[in-house]
Amino acid sequence: MFLCEKCFEHKPRIISKRNKDNSASCSHPAMHDFEDNKCLVHILRETTVKYSKIRPFHVQCQLDLCRHEVRYGCSRDDECFYAHSLVELKVWIMQNETGISHEAIVQESKKYWQNMESNALGAQIISNQAKHGSLNLKMKFVCAQCWRNGQVSEPDKNKKYCSAKARHQWTKDRRVVLVMSNERKKWMTIRPLPTKKQVPLQFDLCNHIASGKKCQYVGNCSFAHSPEEREMWTYMKENGSK
């Protein structure tokens, strides 16, 4: 949606939409000119509401995340050519590929949520029916330390140690989840559901992984690193699993 950028950048932040009584200004008493100061903002509503500003895309923009912003905040703010959030990066990639404008994105977003609301009851029924047994993956837990060393070690009978000669302790923080799809027939690791960052309702594959490259943000990347991880994360998100 569009918000007043002057209010959005104010300290503390002020959320001002278009004034319903006077469409030329924002809803704040300062009544900033809305058309001259509007900015695209992504809103994520979960336990709290998170606002992410999406800056305009131009030829100098780099289709990658700003490392400074990811780690401790970028001091260049709007002068930085790198994306400052995952959603900004996704919008930039979409604009680069399709040329879609911010106005068209807002209109498509409105249509999407209107359809979502009209189909909410039917979707809830389908979700409840598919909640159990809908994950078409084989799954097992293995020892994380053995897996890093190229071994696949499951727990012993008492589930206190792994079955390897090293007998590593079998605890929640020392095991990893492996899944295998019927299509690929290969065991893939599943990282924990990324809860520290904004979590989308539907996950996408990491652009680096999809293009055959190594992801530079393995510890912080909120995009799935395999189709199996995408399916598993989506299932976990929908069913409240961790």
Question: What is the makeup of the main sheet?
Answer: 3 strands, antiparallel
Poorly predicted runs = 121-126, 128-133
Give a count of the beta strands, DSSP E runs of length 2 or more. Answer: 8
The general outline is: elongated
Mean pLDDT: 83
Q: Structural class of the helices, strands and pairings?
A: alpha+beta
Q: What share of the residues does DSSP label as strand, in percent?
A: 15-25%
The strand line-up of the biggest sheet is: 1-2-3
Give Rg in angstroms: 22 Å
- Helix % is 25-40%
Distance between the termini: 31 Å
Q: How many helices?
A: 9
H/E topology pattern? EHHEEEHEHHHEHEEHH
Please give a structural write-up.
The protein is α+β, with helices and mostly antiparallel strands. The protein contains nine helices and eight strands. It has a three-stranded antiparallel beta sheet. A three-stranded antiparallel beta sheet has the order 6-7-8. Strand 2 and strand 3 (49-54) form a beta hairpin. The protein is elongated and about 75 Å long. It starts with a strand and ends with a helix. The model is unreliable at 121-126 and 128-133 (pLDDT under 50).
